[in-house]
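Blinded run. Sample ID left blank on purpose so nobody reads anything into the name before looking at the predicted structure. Input follows.
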Amino acid sequence: MVIPNPLASRRGRLFAFFCLYITEGIPLGFAATAIATQLRRQGIGPAEIGAFVASFYLPWAFKWAVGPFVDVYRSKRWGHRRGWILFTQIVMVLTILVLIPVPLPSGLGLFTAILLVHNTFGAIQDVAIDSLAVNTLSEQERGLANGLMFAGASIGQAIGGSGVLFAMGFIGFDWSFVVVAAALAMVTLFVVLPMREPPEPHVEPPVEGRMRKAAAEMREFAVQSFRSFLGTKGAFRGVFFALLPAGAMSLGLALQSNLGVEFGMDDDEVGLLNLWSSIVSALCMVLGGWLSDRWGRRRTLAVYLALMSLPVLYLMWELQRHGYVMPRPPGGAAMPELIRILWIATMAYAVVQGLMYGTRSAIMMDVTNPAVAATQFTAYMAMMNLAISIAANWQGVAVEAWGYPVTLLVDAITGVLCIFLLPAMKREKRFDDGHAAARARKFATVLGLCCLSWLVYRPNEALFGAGQPMMNTFYTLVFIGSALFLLAGREALGEAAGRWRKAILWAAPLLLAMHLRYYVEKLAPWVALRGIAEVALFAVPLFAGVVLLALSRRDWTVAEDPEALAAAA
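Blinded prediction complete.
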């Protein structure tokens, strides 16, 4: 049987991209819902589950880095983007199957590492799919196609999460991996393999030329993003808006399934809760976008973000009232009253979270410079994924340190902070107001001082007691933000960076490596190695802080976009 090329017709293209996005949603639902539920049943604590879910989102925060390589490396036999999609999907199928013999909970570290590889290729696949969509969909198809793509991702999450939980009662835990791999393989066989990309006029450069071209694209991405973020007040605040949690996030992460397991819900009940909340949220996404167009995006989004905290506060109040504070071992008797409360909180949260999702992306589009829309908007989306990863991590740690009610309270409070950034996030008539240089200098100064403040915090972190998870989350943002600022600023400054240009190449990767601070305690048997690590934990922020403060005194007028300024003038 010969399957027709789905890219050759309008219906075929819409169906193909719908199916491709299903393959993106299945692994996410499988890990964040199905696997997280089973880990809790096996006694894995909320902190480890939070780190597990966080690692799954992390590659999506840095998928922009592979974009240039997808652009310049191509296969004549398999097609440019089709070749990348085939390759990544095959690796995704194999990594899912490799997980079957890994024992849980003893092998959680290896299990997480393999899933991290799996999701890294999932993020690469997403870049290739979006590139294929841009190059094959007509302008009249893109609106409907994007709606179908996001619907496909939601259905994929439901299949990988709720669907697998329902099936586990019949096929068992190990066979669920085979089901997920088979679902991915079906799309590969019946959608991707029959694809035939339209021919492209392209002269293939030598390998060295392709590497140089990819590096040049990455430098251009860094410079354009840097300039666009600093160009206006709204775009600059958009950076912080993207990095802050988009409302209270706890009921949208592993905390929900953790409580379900502890309350005595079986897999079918957890799956049913996840399924209905996904359906309600998807419907409200459409409603939220429509309401924002009618009543104004910033006004409606502020309301949605505030409302997201209410179900979280309700759950916090009820848990405190029932004396349910610290995590409890799974396997106890069912708690019908608490299960009912969890259903009410989760469904109410699904409504307002859906309303928020239908509006948040539009806000980011408002502050994005149309001339560099793909670059700037992609960077905003990457930072939002990073915020999800960080939230999943700190919440898991906080539950074990503070208990559920306090964690929910902190989540409800921090979730509304981004509302204060909304007044300045409006569509601008000009996308460089002439203040980019001043913003760059101030940003470098603030980041430098934050890095240096680590030297005071680290020796006294015990004084913060149960507040350490929040402080560590803050410094994770500081270190990652400083590293990205340094790398992008280096390209924007060029020779104006002076002798600090080389220092940046050392400081940025060392700042990213500061995430290894969570594993220093495991070096206890190796005294000398741990001593070196402790010294590095002070030396790296000190070095980075000095570099950032030095850069705050450089001439940052090169960070302004000359074309945008000329157009404004």
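Unblinding after everyone has recorded impressions. The radius of gyration is 24 Å.
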